[in-house]
Amino acid sequence: MRGSFESEMTFYSFCPDHVPKPIAWGNYESDTTTWFYLCDFHDMIDDLPGPDDLVPVIADVQTARVAKPSNNNFNFLADIHNDDKWQVSWELQFTQAMRRMFSHEEQLRGKDDRLTELREDLFEKVIPRLLRPLETSGHSLQPCLIHSDLCPSSVMVDEDTSKVMIFDSCAYWSHNEAELGTWRSTQNKSGPPYSSEYIVKMGISEPVEDWDDRNALRYILLLSTMYPDDPKFRTMAMWEMQRLVDKFPMGYEGNQFVSP
């Protein structure tokens, strides 16, 4: 609950007109196992804002040049504890978070030998191949704050002001493109039209040719972890992992973007 509060406080500081102001968090004196989170009340229309309305708000947050605080007190993706200790590169940061994600998924679902093999190939070949070029050969990244769970249940319209309202953030400091991972889901109505508008506003990091595979990498295991009782999500994750491993069998050494 503290993570949720700190996440919302930080996101509110970036776009106060579009986030209900956090007030407090804690637990009940009469029942210490029951927790609460309080924020300003907004009467909202249960409808997803259009891409032209939502994407500019996200772009403004991501392009704000604010120094990253030395201590992150929010580190949860939904109810998943995220390892977000600061690293010197996005490749290392993402690898660290994915190791935690795989560990959590295995605790929930049990060990799978094929998944273990794919996981090692992902860490040794696919992640270096897709993420290292973002910060080599003259390329660089500017970390930014992302919401990381932009779905219809966390983005609505204020009935009184007609402003886009964003809440239930799972914020962390990231490569900006990681925001689009949840939009890849076929179950998420904020899909291709929103990604297309985002690209218009924010562009694509170099190398552009890796865009779709980078996007797949960020989304690869989240649903399997969030819905551990549904076997299809682990199957989908392994299928996508196998596709990426087959596509990049040489890892970073097969990277065509390395400068001579």
| Low-pLDDT residue intervals, each spanning 5 or more residues | 73-78
State the total count of DSSP E strands.
Answer: 9
Strand order, largest beta sheet: 3-7-8
> How far from one another are the termini?
49 Å
Query: CATH topology, anyone?
Result: Aminoglycoside 3'-phosphotransferase, Chain: A, domain 2
Element string (H = helix, E = strand):
HEEEHEEHHEEEEHHHH
- Helix and strand content put the structural class at alpha+beta
Biggest beta sheet attributes: 3 strands, antiparallel
**Tally of helical segments:** 8
| Structural domain count | 1
Q: What fraction strand?
A: 5-15%
Account of the 3D structure:
The longest helix has 20 residues, at 90-109. By secondary structure, this protein is of the alpha+beta class. It contains eight helices and nine strands. 41% of the residues lie in helices and 12% in strands. Mean pLDDT is 88; it is low at 73-78. A three-stranded antiparallel sheet has the order 3-7-8, with helices on one face. The protein has a two-stranded antiparallel sheet with strand order 1-2. It has one domain (2-79, 88-254): Alpha-Beta Complex (Aminoglycoside 3'-phosphotransferase, Chain: A, domain 2).
